Amino acid sequence: MGTPKLRHPRRDRKGAGRWALREDVGMVNAFRLVVLASGSGSNLQAILEQLHGQEGFSVVAVGSDLVGAPALGRARAAGVETASFPRDGYASREARDAAMGDWIESLGADLVVLAGYMQLLSKPFVVRFRGRIVNIHPALLPAFPGLDAIGQALEAGAEVTGVTVHFVDEGIDTGPVLLQREVPVPADGDRAALEEAIHATEHQLYPEAIRVIARGLVRIDADGPKVVMTDE
Ligand code: GRF
Q1: Model confidence over 79-98: pLDDT tens digits?
Q2: For ligand 1, atom 14, which residue shows the shortest CA distance?
Q3: What is the pTM of this model?
Q4: What is the structure's pLDDT at 165?
Q5: Cα–Cα separations (whole angstroms), residue 121 to 97, 157, 165, 210, 230
Q6: Among the atoms of ligand 1, which is closest to the Cα of residue 137?
Q7: Do 232 and 139 fall within a single domain?
């Protein structure tokens, strides 16, 4: 499996046991994103439009478990490299994730961005890229983890739900929370309206969260790894 050759993280001088993705606060210097997506790719599109080729960011590739994922079409339209890693192309989930991890490393990625990636990542993959994988979830975690978070919120009669960007750990939607934003649930429980409001919020929050990481403002406290601290 080998040691990741990603450039970050490195030890933060401010305190033992804590680290920063970058120390050049306020600057983004060639920050390379690999996005993994299984679905329509509207979050990928937001990242392509708001970050790619700007402020030092580049989406260097988009990967999927599905050869025909619409997200891959969006990537190709933007001139971004694509690859697919179908589960049935490998002996096991671990083997698939090992191949995908090698590909990600070969691209010199700084951050792996899950944008509607519908496969569980195997533990070795999470360990290999720990602190360098983020996910977006359509609820205010820890509320409504897992599938159909919007349906769960409606079913529970929540008045407010929202969007969470979090680092990925071995659990399902359990990693350290980076940013959250509330979205009110329409009084009439209109699912389509709520989905639209959540997606619009996601498309703002994900680029924002990635900027915060790239600027080196994020630290995960090793003593309390569910805690993310920002300097801004
Ligand atoms: C988003 O709602 C995201 O929160 C969830 O999967 C969905 C992906 O949508 N993880 P899209 O493919 O980016 O349009």
Answers
A1: 999 999 999 999 999 999 99
A2: 42
A3: 0.88
A4: 98
A5: 7, 31, 17, 20, 26
A6: 4
A7: yes
